[in-house]
Inverse folding.
């Protein structure tokens, strides 16, 4: 039976984390059981998964980003005032302009991030911006 929930925490380096199910149960998670790129599994991301019993409690497997077939998953909902937001006009950046701008913001905000972490964060933000039509593909 498929279950759903959100990523509670996930360490892409060690490959371990946990999911909180929609039933408020915490379930262990390992990168080997992810269907998508591990850098997409950040806290708050909706997922679907199967559960099995292991020697250390419940363990998730066959973990996938939640979304309807053929559509990218919705990772976050920023505003319930979507109609108002669509009325506001703004400049649409190219992907390269967006990445250049966002890199500067990230480096200033959190200078201790590694280059790998910055690249992962940039990729995630670019996909998010593209899905919301904030940048050109």
């Amino acid at each position: 039976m498929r279950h759903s929930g959100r990523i509670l925490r996930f360490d892409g380096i060690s490959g371990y984390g946990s999911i909180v199910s929609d039933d408020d149960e915490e379930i262990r998670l390992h990168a080997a059981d992810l269907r998508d790129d591990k850098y997409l599994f950040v806290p708050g991301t909706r997922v679907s998964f199967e559960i099995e019993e292991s020697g250390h409690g419940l363990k998730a497997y066959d973990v996938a980003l939640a979304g309807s077939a053929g559509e990218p998953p919705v990772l976050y909902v920023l505003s319930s005032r979507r109609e108002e937001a669509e009325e506001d006009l703004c400049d649409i950046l190219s992907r390269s302009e967006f990445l250049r701008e966002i890199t500067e913001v990230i480096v200033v905000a959190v200078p201790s991030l590694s280059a790998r972490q910055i690249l992962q964060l940039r990729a995630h933000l670019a996909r998010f911006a593209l899905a919301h039509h904030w940048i050109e593909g």
The radius of gyration is 17 Å. The domain at 3-65 is CATH 2.40.50.140 (OB fold (Dihydrolipoamide Acetyltransferase, E2P)).
